[in-house]
Amino acid sequence: MTTFPKPIGHYQIDGDYHSSWQSPNVEEYLPYNVDAIGKSVERDPELAKEAEKKIYDAAKRITDELGGVGVFGCELFVRVTDGRVDVYANECAPRPHDTGMTTYISHPQGFNEGGLHVRAAAGLPIPARIGDGYRLFDPIAPAASHVIISPAQGFDPEYKGLFDAMTVTGTNIHLFGKPLAYPTGWIVEERMGIALAMGTDAFDAKRKAEIAAHKIMIRTATDTEWKGQTERRMHVVQ
């Protein structure tokens, strides 16, 4: 039995997840256009509904073929050409996925991607509603996540700006407790945590998560100067 959360939109920078978002109202971001991030664009409810259904159908075909239990992170591309929606598979991770960390604030407590994974693996019930023939698990609010990456290199990272970050309305900060930090381009960028936010819609949540994440500064035992988040590509807030 397959249960679907609402589709999660995300973008990558230099091949790595940078931000993701989810909302009960998928027409806020489906069909997704990377050029529309943070802009006021005309919504198309019918096109969004078609894209949502095709996402569920593609994900079910993939997971039925793979088999198993638990959360499967299916990464898909949505393309619209002359009013026609096509969905293409990119990858499937048979585990909770980095983009799915948005559910740590968009879903009820205990039902984030980690909680759903445990429930599925343990054979515990997952409450869902039936909509258009699909078992759906709805988010409680529009929400977004934004990565906190390390601009510093070395062991024993320290963090500054947490209080300021948590003063942004509807946000929370999760630090991963990693003992080693290194900056983008050293090996790969090191994700040290995420900022989570709820908003009036998906892009309002995305804006808040960006603001909170960019208030965090990092230094290490050997790289002692406080350094902040500098990446601004594809951001709502410039």
UniProtKB/TrEMBL annotation:
Q: What is its EC number?
A: 2.1.2.-
Enumerate the InterPro entries for this protein. Answer: ATP-grasp (IPR011761), ATP-grasp_carboxylate-amine (IPR003135), PurT_C (IPR048740)
Domain of life (superkingdom):
Archaea
Q: Does the keyword Ligase apply?
A: yes
Q: What is this protein called?
A: Formate-dependent phosphoribosylglycinamide formyltransferase
> Is Cytoplasm there in the keyword field?
no
Name the Pfam families for this protein.
ATP-grasp, PurT_C
Q: Which UniProt keywords apply?
A: ATP-binding, Ligase, Nucleotide-binding, Transferase
Organism expressing this protein natively:
Candidatus Methanogaster sp. ANME-2c ERB4
